[in-house]
Design goal:
Elements lengths: L9 E2 L3 E5 L3 H18 L4 E4 L6 H14 L7 E4 L1 E3 L10 H13 L6 E2 L8 H14 L5 E4 L21 E4 L2 H7 L13 E4 L2 H5 L3 E6 L5 H9 L17 E5 L9
Parallel strand pairs: 2-11, 3-4, 3-7, 4-6, 7-10, 10-11
Antiparallel strand pairs: 1-2, 5-9, 8-9
Helix pairs in contact: 1-2, 2-3
The structure holds 2-amino-2-deoxy-6-O-phosphono-alpha-D-glucopyranose.
2-amino-2-deoxy-6-O-phosphono-alpha-D-glucopyranose binds next to helix 5.
């Protein structure tokens, strides 16, 4: 893989920030990291995210599958979140997105791919069951993350406790507006709630790779890396973790430092 990267702009023992030449290079680095993990441990547990940001990572993994025989058939995956009340068969449901971009395209066993059940009659019970299933799988080895314009990770909006666990949350109008592009009917069609892994759940992953692309993410990235570590910036919690890599394109890195 050819990547033109500048030196990491921030390095501590725990958090590494890499500014890649472009989104594709950054996605390629994330895919290489996943590939190395799977080659060393084919039964690894992946944490998978939705949104437009991780899509090039999944495409790069598809390429590695085709060209280098990367085999994800024994891996497991846990999705971060799902809309509450959405028909899981709708293309906008995160179940459909994960089924298409991850499970089928990458050849995972559907029985080893879990997505929070946003249609459960009892969301508290569904959230608890999701935590339990992550725990009984041995925890997530590598979590892929995007970031919202307001700094959210998963669907943990500003105000979320950094030790929060999987739970139903209200989505801010800002997040619903940002995600309206995926829905035919615009913002009114975007569900108002989601079932999301908590920030505390995410922080239990042994390794985390967050990607952010475009100038729209620059402020959220800078706050996460340089602002105070508090509830107003969900992604700032990552600075408490011992193994995080932040992969940025130049635009997303433009307000850092
Ligand atoms: C949604 C998802 C997040 C994702 C965010 C950013 O809100 N729940 O996991 O990080 O969107 O999406 P995008 O990558 O499309 O900008």
């Amino acid at each position: 893989m050819t990547t033109t990267t500048t030196a990491p702009v921030h390095t501590s023992s725990s958090l590494r920030v890499v500014v890649a030449a472009d989104a594709e290079s950054a996605a390629g680095m994330a895919a290489e990291r996943i590939s190395a993990l799977i080659r060393s441990r084919p039964t690894a547990v992946l944490g998978v995210a939705t949104g437009s940001t991780p899509s090039p990572v999944y495409r790069a993994l598809q390429t590695l599958r085709r060209t280098e025989g990367l085999d994800l058939s024994q891996a497991s995956a846990f999705a971060l979140d799902e809309y509450v009340g959405i028909d899981p068969r709708r293309p906008q449901s995160y179940r459909s997105v994960i089924d298409g971009e991850v499970t089928r395209s990458l050849g995972l066993d559907p029985l080893r791919v879990a997505i929070p059940d946003g249609s459960a009659p009892d969301l508290v019970e569904a959230a608890h069951a999701y935590e339990e299933s992550i725990r009984s799988a041995g925890g997530v080895d590598l979590q892929i993350l995007g970031i919202g314009h307001n700094g959210h990770i998963g669907f943990n909006e500003p105000g979320s406790a950094h030790d929060s666990l999987t739970r139903a949350v209200d989505l801010t109008p800002e997040t619903r507006r940002a995600n309206a592009r995926f829905f035919d009917g615009g913002i009114d069609d975007v569900p108002t709630q989601a079932l999301t892994q908590g920030i505390g759940t995410i922080l239990r992953a042994r390794e985390i790779v967050l990607l952010a692309f475009g100038s729209g993410k620059a402020e959220a990235v800078a706050r996460a890396l340089e602002g105070s570590i508090d509830r107003s910036s969900p992604a700032s919690a990552l600075r408490r973790h011992q193994a995080v890599t932040i992969l940025l394109d130049k635009a997303a890195a433009s307000m850092v430092g």
